[in-house]
Write a sequence for this structure.
């Protein structure tokens, strides 16, 4: 093969085009001084479609086929076939940001519908059409807090139980904004509200809480956290996920100013951590929202139409004064999540969420019955996942379970964590048997 | 050539395809059957409740009201809207690729091998020594690169507060520098559209952390003085950042690493043809020289130190993380497949044909192109016409218009990047659309488009009265 299979030019066409331009050759069109040019090779052999499919399939076959009782921020549920088939329509997949809304009504409406679903789930009036993931959404919430709070504070308070990867992202954005991240203590798996109240002084610009927490615990006192935050004149940012939100008290009702979190629990398979960041907030912060917003308008014929709006917040207009540097986001994942949510409908979503509570409780109960295991370690309501204690060293137990075909999280030397969704609910008995054997 | 985009009109004539909620919602009494206590749960949930056949029609109709690369030419400047090979979707859909990010190294050798190989080929293509695949988009790559530069300076005990950026750069560059906590120093464009070396010398100094540069720049010109630019920045103790948006023009002919760049990002959804997905997901890997490798995000992938397979590791001075997990893996694997399909010769040919197409198209249109010689894209000027209006009229001819009114150094700019995928006939159609639209009278331009699913949309009204959800919309209807 001499060229790109996706460049359709015949030799005669290339000649005709060069003639029209008045150029001798393709090379003559390049204005790159020899001193900084490259005349070597990359050493990449071109392969056929079939060879590459086989090559990648062969490589991926080296992944062990484990039953994943894994969560801690990345969740997968069964994705109905229709999600793939509709989202893979190339009119969606091969389009880009809707800079010309007159020919992009389809994607704009789908994103408007996605925003509307999040408005219902959060109770907040503004939701953007995506951030990269829950971690970057949290980080963007911190920079928003920095912009909207008149206080001179620079402290962002986060729960001690926060996944380290998420905190690391937050710290990178906070560093640039001159903010520092501090944690408040937990009390048996959820926020220690008294300790938080003591810490929430004038120097705090934002308080972050999660429900469910990274350990799967549902926060029992969100309203109290909201009050403490309001008293401190700080921003209350609540983290959750799209499935949990369908049954939990709406964040707006507990005083949340901003909701961040993960919506990729719908629409995405396990994807090595790919996400879909939720960002929703109160009306007051509309002009401080990061990312794309789709709004309703009308066209010249008076027909309802959709368009990207309030773009003066964004980097391509506002440059260094933009609310964020985000441009390309996760639009297609948002489309997938919306189709998945539509497919479930409200009763399907609520059933799925209720199963996340009962399946986790059932698995914890079964594990707790094993001698040498305490499950769950926190006396709280759990969603999808929970931490359990093993008398044998936890890393060794997890390693032995992996050999048996099961993946669980190691929290520390004494604790493991298991997550159960509709995809794994049918295999919990096997996990319990394996844990019994290993312990 | 004309094109009529499909559209749907509901009974009332006031809407096209109804919103999902207008097709019927259901309200579920959540607290009634909840396994949770009432104080934790909401009372009810109201959402659309469509049947599966209704869902299929709804989204199929929406798709038909959406322009895409597979619909026709999409020469959006700076966006590199290439054909997205279908087979890469199948590669990414392998069930063995669907793995949780917390899995152990030993149980994910397949993923690690592909990531390792991708790091390797990207390093080769960019002339860089080390690559991270974590950033989930181009702007995230920019932030990663600037944070790496910042960590490098801090590690060497120098406190630098400024990032220098040419006025013609992508908006993300400015926003990225600000996000990382830097002051932005804007560099005016030289008369020839390139960096003015004297202006650069005046702008850089002991406060300069980095210069962010796009090359070819945003009107398609190669910065011929790049070696001097690198010397000026390096002599001041700064680093040189390469914005990879226009890398497609250089494939096989120039590598940022050989030009003196210290850090760069790649836009795999541009250069390496992964689908743009209506605005993402993309991926923005970052490559750096050996001096900066220790600061890259954690984890990276390497051959296992015990010689068996691959493993993740934390670079010793890592900036930490820029994505909660490992970035957009299902996008990265498509980029790997694309690069493998093209190989050296294909990548080089992609650049050649992209540059040929831009030059041929520019030659065929009646609009002036003030700056050259350009490469894969050019900024035509609509002169005394409004570029945005010309663009709207182009929509009637079955093409997507270029990026308009940017970069600002060209008045009424139409930044055009046809990419290598268009053949001569397609470029001739595109040129005809340019020329007819450019020659139409004001009234025709003002009333355009007319053959699209929607006629001209009121953008000002959308911003003045924001209605961002069906809840807000129905309150005003």
């Amino acid at each position: 093969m001499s060229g790109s299979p996706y460049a359709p030019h015949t030799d005669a066409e290339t000649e005709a085009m060069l003639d029209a331009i008045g150029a001798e050759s393709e090379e003559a069109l390049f204005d790159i001084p020899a001193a900084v040019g490259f005349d070597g090779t990359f050493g990449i052999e071109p392969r056929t479609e079939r060879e590459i499919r086989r090559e990648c399939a062969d490589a991926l076959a080296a992944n062990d086929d484990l039953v994943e009782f894994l969560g801690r921020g990345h969740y997968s549920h069964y994705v109905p076939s229709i999600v793939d088939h509709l989202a893979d329509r190339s009119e969606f997949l091969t389009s880009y940001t809707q800079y010309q809304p007159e020919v992009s009504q389809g994607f704009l409406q789908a994103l408007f519908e996605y925003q509307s679903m999040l408005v219902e789930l959060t109770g907040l009036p503004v939701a953007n059409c995506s951030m990269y993931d829950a971690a970057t959404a949290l980080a963007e919430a911190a920079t928003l807090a920095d912009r909207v709070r008149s206080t001179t504070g620079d402290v962002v308070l986060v729960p001690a139980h926060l996944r380290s990867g998420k905190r690391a992202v937050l710290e990178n954005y906070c560093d640039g904004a001159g903010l520092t991240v501090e944690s408040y203590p937990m009390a048996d798996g959820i926020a220690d509200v008294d300790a938080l109240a003591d810490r929430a002084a004038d120097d705090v610009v934002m308080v972050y809480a999660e429900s469910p927490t990274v350990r799967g615990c549902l926060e029992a006192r969100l309203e109290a956290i909201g009050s403490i935050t309001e008293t401190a004149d700080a921003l209350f940012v609540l983290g959750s996920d799209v499935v949990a939100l369908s049954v939990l008290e709406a964040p707006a009702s507990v005083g949340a100013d901003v909701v961040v979190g993960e919506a990729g629990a719908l629409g995405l398979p396990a994807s090595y951590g790919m996400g879909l960041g939720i960002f929703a907030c109160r009306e007051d912060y509309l002009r401080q929202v990061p990312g794309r917003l789709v709004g309703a308008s009308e066209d010249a014929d008076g027909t309802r139409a959709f368009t990207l709006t309030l773009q003066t917040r964004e980097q391509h207009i506002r440059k260094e004064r933009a609310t964020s540097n985000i441009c390309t986001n996760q639009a297609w994942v948002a489309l997938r999540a919306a189709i998945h949510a539509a497919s479930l409908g409200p009763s399907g979503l609520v059933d799925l969420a209720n199963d996340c509570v009962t399946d986790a409780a059932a698995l914890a109960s079964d594990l707790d019955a094993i001698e040498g295991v305490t499950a769950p370690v926190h006396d709280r309501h759990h969603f999808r996942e929970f931490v359990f204690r093993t008398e044998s060293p936890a890393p060794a137990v997890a390693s032995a379970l992996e050999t048996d075909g099961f993946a669980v999280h190691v929290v520390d030397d004494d604790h493991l964590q298991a997550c159960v969704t509709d995809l794994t609910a049918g295999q919990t008995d096997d996990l319990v048997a394996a844990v019994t054997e290993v312990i | 050539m004309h094109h009529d985009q499909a559209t749907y009109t509901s009974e009332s004539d006031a809407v096209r395809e109804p919103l999902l909620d207008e097709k019927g919602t259901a309200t579920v009494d959540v607290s009634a059957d909840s396994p949770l206590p009432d104080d934790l749960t909401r009372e009810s949930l109201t959402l659309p409740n469509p049947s599966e056949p209704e869902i299929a029609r709804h989204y199929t109709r929406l798709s038909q009201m959406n322009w895409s690369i597979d619909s026709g030419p999409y020469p959006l400047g700076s966006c590199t809207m290439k054909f997205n090979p279908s087979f890469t979707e199948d590669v990414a859909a392998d069930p063995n690729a669907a793995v949780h990010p917390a899995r152990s190294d030993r149980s994910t050798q397949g993923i690690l091998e592909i990531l390792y190989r991708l790091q390797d080929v990207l390093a080769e293509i960019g002339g860089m020594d080390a690559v991270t695949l974590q950033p989930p988009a181009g702007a995230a790559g920019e932030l990663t690169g600037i944070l790496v530069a910042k960590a490098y300076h801090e590690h060497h005990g120098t406190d630098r507060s400024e990032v220098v950026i040419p006025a013609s750069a992508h908006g993300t560059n400015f926003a990225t520098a600000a996000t990382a906590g830097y002051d932005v120093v804007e560099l005016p464009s030289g008369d020839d559209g390139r960096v003015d070396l004297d202006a650069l010398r005046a702008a850089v100094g002991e406060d300069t952390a980095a210069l962010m540069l796009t090359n070819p720049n945003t009107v398609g010109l190669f910065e011929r003085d790049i070696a001097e630019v690198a010397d000026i920045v390096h002599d001041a103790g700064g680093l040189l950042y390469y914005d990879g948006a226009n890398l497609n023009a250089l494939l096989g002919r120039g590598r940022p690493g050989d030009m003196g760049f210290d850090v760069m990002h790649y836009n795999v959804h541009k250069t390496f043809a992964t689908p743009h997905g209506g605005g993402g997901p993309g991926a923005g890997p970052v490559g750096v020289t050996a001096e900066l490798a220790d600061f890259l995000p954690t984890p990276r992938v390497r051959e296992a130190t015990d010689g068996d397979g691959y493993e993740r590791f934390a670079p010793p001075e890592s900036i930490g993380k820029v994505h909660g997990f490992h970035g957009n893996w299902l996008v990265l694997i498509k980029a790997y497949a694309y690069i493998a399909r093209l190989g050296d010769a294909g990548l080089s040919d992609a650049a050649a044909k992209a540059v040929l197409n831009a030059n041929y198209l520019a030659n065929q249109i009646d609009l002036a192109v003030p700056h050259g010689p350009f490469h894969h894209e050019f900024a035509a000027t609509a002169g005394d016409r409004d570029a945005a209006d010309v663009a709207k009229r182009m929509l009637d001819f079955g093409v997507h218009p270029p990026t308009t009114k940017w970069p600002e150094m060209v008045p009424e700019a139409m930044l055009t990047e046809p990419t290598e995928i268009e053949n001569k006939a397609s470029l001739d159609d595109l040129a005809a659309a340019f020329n007819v639209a450019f020659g139409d009278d004001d009234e025709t331009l003002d009333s355009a488009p007319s053959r699209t699913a929607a006629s001209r949309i009121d953008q000002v009204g959308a911003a003045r009265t924001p209605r961002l959800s069906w809840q807000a919309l129905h309150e005003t209807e």
Q: What stands out?
A: The longest strand of chain B covers residues 208-214. Chain B touches chain A through 200 residues (CB under 8 Å). Residues 86-340 of chain B form a domain with the Aspartate Aminotransferase; domain 2 fold (CATH 3.40.640.10). The two ends of chain B are 38 Å apart (CA to CA).
